[in-house]
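Q: Joint fold for the lines below.
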Amino acid sequence: MKNKISALLLGTASLLAFAGFASADDKVVKIGSLSDQSGLYADVGGPGSTLAAQMAVEDSGLLNKGWKIEVISGDHQNKPDIGSNITRQWFDVDKVDVVVDTPNSGVALAVSNIIKEKNGIFLNSGAGSSDLTNAQCSPNTIHWTYDTYMLAHGTGSALTKAGGATWFFLTADYAFGAALERDTTAAVIAGGGKVVGGVKHPLNTSDFSSFLLQAQASKAKVIGLANAGGDTSNAIKQAAEFGIISGGQKLAGLLMFITDVHAIGLPVAQGLNFTETFYWDANDQTRAFSKRFQDRMRNKQVPTMSQAGVYSALTHYFKALDAMGGNSHDGAKIVAKMKEMPTDDPLFGKGSIQPNGRKIHPAYLFEVKKPSESKGPWDYYKLVATIPAEEAFTPLDKSTCPLLKK
Amino acid sequence: MSINLQALFAQLLVGLINGSFYALLSLGLAVIFGMLNIINFAHGALYMMGAFAAYFLLNVLGIGYWWALIIAPLAVGLFGIILERTMLQWIAQLDHLYGLLLTFGLGLIIQGVFQNYFGSSGLPYAIPDELKGGVNLGFMFLPIYRGWVVVFSLVVCLATWYLIERTRLGANLRAATENPTLVRAFGINVPRMITLTYGLGVGLAALAGVLSAPINQVRPLMGADLIIVVFAVVVIGGMGSIMGSIITGFALGIVEGLTKYFYPEASNTVVFVLMVLVLLIKPSGLTGRTA
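A: Joint structure:
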């Protein structure tokens, strides 16, 4: 009750004077998990991300120290306008402190701008566009789990080196697809390869046959799938049908999540290479977390890297709040504190946050197991290579983030 | 862009494959609308149930694709019959809006339940061994399974058309929609006939679901993604016209295929642009009866 009153006072104070807002520390936190709750990215983030946020709250130990932390969720339906409206309402009416997850780069870029305007905190785990920490970077945003640069340099470079000299792109027609195609093209060219063509498909396409035929006709050695979630799994499944793999072309699922591999099934997915920053079966800590997570998920899925990222980001956020002794509700100040502190959590290990808001940690190039190698459900990946944190993400001197210019 | 004749043929064929699904689904809608006067917005969810039925038959009971083609439509059709008996029959005489709301709500509930338990990314369903592989047609590599889908759905569509337009049973059905009281006076059980018709329409949706299971992922949202297009197909073809819905289904699949070749970004809007044009020029649809 006392907290409620202080929150009320805070709200009033914030209307009167912004300075008064920043000075009043309390121990109340409200987290908004903004995601695609029912569409093609719902298994990647969605309810699983809300659960991961909840678990981060429970594991933080702050509840025992008298903190009051609440997690709410919102469905942006992959539409930037809806995502923006929810974000505005969360900050203006519901007094949310931090927004997490938010797959779909189109939504994430819009939300990041609003959160900057509201001086909130955006811990993005689900979106891919590397623009979030380059041209569009913000002092209020940390891009946690992965980005298109990392995917491009992990998978794109590896496949080009392995003989994939010519590429054809199937690109989802929105911010993320464009960023992924751009970054991968750069990686392919840097590796001595060439892009021979590409086609843009609408987001959430169920039939890829037309696009696949065009890719097949291009005779490119590698077909790069610059899309995600349901789009990627449909494209891969149908590519098998049209004899693209048996015809000698290689598929590059540039962004794959474990739920996609599960949906495609090992007989079709085997041999695919892609880059992720989290795998549930990496070590004892990730296994323990995944077990607890799975038990609480209705569809019994293991956590994806996006969902793990939500947990990891919030864990670090809570450490910063604990170190500061209270919640100042001053987004930029808390983010600055988070950037100061080195990160360490059970899921991503040790890492750090760069001044442009990019969280860095090692990335892993995986290969999908053959059905005969898999010991059971969700045992899908073989580790091919580990990419050190410094190499996996955009080098700071190449980042175009205006925050870096002093 | 230079027009590559081979690629063009390939796109036409691919369009025909998608058209088969549109045709099967819009046919079911047309049958239901023609006979029951209900716009069945639960159609997409029932199509999805057909695919899930095939998945469960295989993974729980070990029953393969061929039996699923028969069992899944029957099972889902039975579910449809239950829906009709318990809910839809009470609103048949009311305004279209009631049917729309009820079926739309049912669709959302069914979809939500599946999504709750199976997530949104779906489950794999393999192509049956007999139909694996493909043939090289010179201008394209045609997966045998897709060829099968075109042929099979054409047969089913024509059989349904024949059943309704050319047989005694079909004649009774059509008469019952025109004047139920009079047909009842001839000793025909009209309510039962309507129930069975709804079951037939739903069965067709489930059949399309089974056919699409090996191509698309078996996903709770697979119907929601498709049904909007199918409604556009029905609007273009004309509500309630059996042959119209079949022809429009195939034709629009081809138009969409061509768009994917010439201007891929517009491929999921082209059907709606056409719908707008048809509504402006011929509001009852290309082959529709005027209300």
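Q: Anything notable?
A: Residues 28-146+283-361 of chain A form a domain with the Rossmann fold fold (CATH 3.40.50.2300). The longest strand of chain A covers residues 28-35.
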